[in-house]
Amino acid sequence: MSNINLDITTRKEYPIEVGKGLGNTVSAWLGEHYSTDSVFVVIDENVNNLHRERLEKWCQPQFKHVYYIEIPEGERSKSIQQWKEVADEILSIGVERSTPLMAVGGGVTGDLGGFVASTVLRGLPLIHVPTTLLAMVDSSIGGKTGINHNTGKNLIGAFYQPDAVFADVHFLDTLDDKEWVTGIAEILKYGAIRNPDLFKDFESLVNKSFTANEQWVSVIAESAGIKADIVQEDALESGIRAYLNFGHTFGHALEKVAGYGTITHGEAVFVGMLAACNFSAQLGHSVDITPFKSFLPLYQRQMSPLPDDVDELIEAMKSDKKVKNNMLRLVLLNSWASPYVHDCTDYSALREAWEFAL
Ligand code: NAD
Ligand code: ZN
């Protein structure tokens, strides 16, 4: 019997550009990297209505044929049916393995477009153009792509890295406040687990109306860099990538109990982070919640009434797909910027953390 060792690395280096007005950079990069005469642009319907002209300027100089494939906005597009429609369209137009696919939109478009790219012809070159704050700082980085199944979210998918990510804050000019607030929760998460200085830069920004100025470019670049660092160290999610779940085990339970759509992901994660900070403090860790408090008005301003049945919330936490052997694993903080994974056995502390946050 022979023994073959294959060292298949999942690592791939790619640029993540964040800026205001990236048109020339993107066009030049596309010209340098691809020699096909066509490109597929999988694009969210709202983004297509609002920003089509920008995309045309980016792509037209480099490609003879730019095929726009519009997908309906919203989570429902992360479906097997929508995957099929996009794949059908690409295959009927005609595609080569070197034809790039650009996914332009929020996390929904990135996840669906990325999954199409990973499967058609066993993999097309993928470029992410995130257009929501959440997509810029979170979903476009790290290579997770996928769709939902009727038994649960993100159950079908692949780890598939893009060739590049281009985050142009001009897209954010048209973003709803609700979507800004969702992205802000993820940025606060990066502050908590890696760089509490982010809170300072941030306070003045979020108290005004949201405008995508240069200050945002640096906050987004810093946040995207933190996510990139963490996933680089743990591309297949076996260890420290779990820290990115800070606030999320609580948050997912809240989303589930409140009913999806009643509360946004960002609101739920914000409340979840408050609970996780309180739990950490109960264990004697020095986590002073003050930096988070200044963001409270931002969330209270929008938030619909929260569920208050703590037992139901704890049950929902136990049914999270990340729970193993009935052990609730929570990301807590030793202090700011020092996260760790805690196996939760003390349900009265958990209850108290919920009561504090709600
Ligand atoms: P989304 O893609 O649904 O976008 C939110 C809304 O904003 C949509 O109505 C969209 O049409 C609109 N929109 C997008 N860009 C706009 C713009 N520039 N101007 C105006 N409107 C715009 O939601 P999202 O919050 O970006 O992403 C959520 C999804 O991301 C979820 O499906 C989640 O599972 C996924 N996600 C994936 C990862 C990952 O690692 N792959 C990480 C986090 C979240
Ligand atoms: Zn999140």
Protein model, in words:
The protein starts with 15 loop residues before the first strand and ends with a helix. It has two domains: 16-174, Rossmann fold, CATH 3.40.50; 177-357, Dehydroquinate synthase-like - alpha domain (Dehydroquinate synthase-like, alpha domain). Strand 4 (101-105), helix 4 (107-119) and strand 5 (126-130) form a beta-alpha-beta unit. The strands form three sheets. Strands 1-8-5-4-2-3 form a six-stranded parallel sheet, sandwiched between helices. Strands 6-7 form a two-stranded antiparallel sheet. 47% of the residues lie in helices and 17% in strands. With 358 residues, the protein is an alpha/beta fold. The chain is globular and about 60 Å long. The longest helix has 20 residues, at 214-233. It has helices spanning 23-33, 45-59, 80-93, 107-119, 133-139, 177-193, 197-207, 214-233, 248-258, 265-282, 290-293, 296-302, 310-318, 347-357, and strands spanning 16-19, 38-44, 65-71, 101-105, 126-130, 144-149, 152-159, 164-168, 328-335, 338-344. Bound molecules: nicotinamide-adenine-dinucleotide and zinc ion. Residues 186, 248, 265, 269 line the site of zinc ion.
